[in-house]
Amino acid sequence: MTTRHQPGRQSRRWVCADRVFDFAAGPLLMGILNVTPDSFSDGGHFLGCEAALAQALRLEAEGADIIDIGGESTRPGAVEVSEAEEIARVVPVVEALRGRCRAALSVDTTKAAVARAALAAGAQIINDVSACTADADMVGTVRASGAGVVLMHRQGAPRTMQQNPQYDDVVAEVQEYLAERAGVLQTAGVAAERIAIDPGIGFGKTLEHNVRLLGRLEELAALGLPVVVGLSRKSLLAGLTGKPVAERLAGSLAGLVWCVGHGASVLRVHDVAASRDALQVAVAIGTQAMEA
Fold it and tell me: Suppose 40 and one of 75, 80, 202, 237 were both cysteines; which one would form an S-S bond, judging by CB atoms 3.0 to 4.6 Å apart?
């Protein structure tokens, strides 16, 4: 029987196939592994299976709870790749990691065929930046798999999403959209405890939109589902600090600490070791403050 989420209550666990994550001990870190030639930060660095495998094991050793493997760039202006190409990039990496990696494996895709192939190879999470709208088969794929799923908000497709995005109230609209998409999956038979949501920082949003979403993150957490936030190295940080991609670690960590204190359950990051240190300090201080 499908369990519906309860608005106003922050989720305490996330069921992802054979993994059950308990947030009572604090948020999770999702390490980013792009097996693409054109991702904005590390495109081309881990294209080969051996390089990708080594990077995944490095992220795990640094403290990643989840490895998020993406075979198609979703940066602004990115061009879509074929199902066959995306499968060829992602599935060998998942297969190589199965049995060698203790971290859960996530596939970052909007294509049901890619998701099915990655799940068959050993992935436990589908991270869909279209919130299961880009492919009509994705909702059924999620339902049948037992996998965890991340539903992200975006306005427009990657090629055009940063061309003058408009909202009346970005927080209310993103919250309403994510609640609606979660409801669609639950009506289709996906249990609420398998669903996480992502406000989609940088996906069809201006600097002001992104800052408002982060500043009111608790309103998204009030939906009662785990909130995933990915702001690591993003252009939001350039807008606030003026720093290029290679110099955005401090800004990324500041954003992470804010998110931890305001309802985030999963932080999607490039720099896992530094993020783990920041997370441990933020959680320790937050725990002490609650006990005082």
Answer: 75
Q: How far apart are CA 151 and CA 126, in angstroms?
A: 9
Instruction: Decide if 268 is catalytic.
Output: yes
- Residue 249: give the domain boundaries: 14-291
**Chain center to CA of 66:** 10
Q: Which two tokens stand for residue 47?
A: 């294209």
Sort strands 266-269 and 19-22 into parallel, antiparallel or unpaired: unpaired
Q: What is the three-class DSSP state of 271?
A: coil
Domain count, the chain: 1
Q: Which of 181, 248, 268, 276 is catalytic?
A: 268
Question: pTM for this one?
Answer: 0.91
Asked if 253 and 38 touch (Cβ cutoff 8 Å), the reply is no
Instruction: Tell me if 6 is assigned to some domain.
Output: no
* pLDDT tens track for 134-185: 999 999 999 999 999 999 999 876 666 566 778 999 999 999 999 999 999 9
Q: Give the integer Cα–Cα distance in Å for 56 and 101.
A: 8
Find the Cα–Cα–Cα–Cα dihedral 4, 182, 200, 57, rounded to 10°: 70
- Catalytic-role residue among 116, 194, 234, 276: 234
Whether residue 1 lies inside any domain: the answer is no
Question: Do the domain assignments include residue 3?
Answer: no
